[in-house]
Amino acid sequence: KAGVTQTPRYLIKTRGQQVTLSCSPISGHRSVSWYQQTPGQGLQFLFEYFSETQRNKGNFPGRFSGRQFSNSRSEMNVSTLELGDSALYLCASSSRPVAGARTDTQYFGPGTRLTVL
Amino acid sequence: AQSVAQPEDQVNVAEGNPLTVKCTYSVSGNPYLFWYVQYPNRGLQFLLKYITGDNLVKGSYGFEAEFNKSQTSFHLKKPSALVSDSALYFCAVRDIEGQNFVFGPGTRLSVLP
């Protein structure tokens, strides 16, 4: 079974631009969560989608948004990029919503490394 | 709110020696605990999890972890370290009320040949 895939793997943008990252979950998984990983802050939860609905949201500004399609693929968008948005963005999938299935394992993709210049 | 601590930023161990990566947690109620490993320029790979039952959990690549409720710890162990085990290790926790995974800051393991 194919794992979680993320595209693109690397992105370079300039301040003020916007960016869209894509995530395809493991086949059959309907929950997709997004995380930001930086050396200073570690892994921080952005949001989770299940069945095209946002189930939970972390403490990030409104510039960070996402959506999920009927095939469970998810996109994350960051508008008006700032230097501090440079990070590895990780997507994780699980079969059930995170809040409703506390024992389920999340499986991670390889990440998209975003550099903002 | 739940939290996870990994008290060591870096752990160095010689190849062939046993390794331990420490994790302590704080949750309300029973915890659900996870270990992940991250290799350079890769995502997180699931190693093992504790849900209930036996306090010693066996996982991938020869790793195991011991759940200790009284010490609120979930240390990752391996009897004999390999150079290829060198990576960044994350402990994560969820509690009964938890909406999300909460990850520790990570511990960098270096296995020296």
Concise structural overview:
The complex is a heterodimer of chains A (117) and B (113). Chain A is built from no helices and eleven strands.
What does this structure look like?
The complex is a heterodimer of chains A (117) and B (113). Chain A is an all-beta fold and 117 residues long. In chain A, 0% of the residues lie in helices and 51% in strands. Chain A contains no helices and 11 strands. In chain A, strands 2, 4, 5, 6, 9, 10 and 11 form a 7-stranded mixed β-sheet that branches. A 4-stranded antiparallel β-sheet of chain A has the order 1-3-8-7, with no helix packed on it. Chain B is an all-beta fold. In chain B, strands 2, 5, 6, 10, 11 and 12 form a 6-stranded mixed β-sheet that branches. In chain B, strands 3-9-8-7 form a 4-stranded antiparallel β-sheet, with no helix packed on it. Chain B is globular and about 45 Å long. The mean pLDDT of chain B is 91. Chain A binds chain B through residues 4, 6, 33, 42-43, 45, 48, 56, 58, 90, 92, 98-99, 102-103, 105-111, 113, and chain B through 32, 34, 36, 41-46, 49, 51, 90, 94-96, 98-101, 103-106.
Largest Cβ-defined interface: A-B, 23 and 23 residues
Q: Element order, helices and strands of chain A?
A: EEEEEEEEEEE
Q: Give the SSE string of chain B.
A: EEEEEEEEEEEE
% residues in beta strands of chain B: over 45%
On the 0 to 100 scale, the average pLDDT of chain A is 92
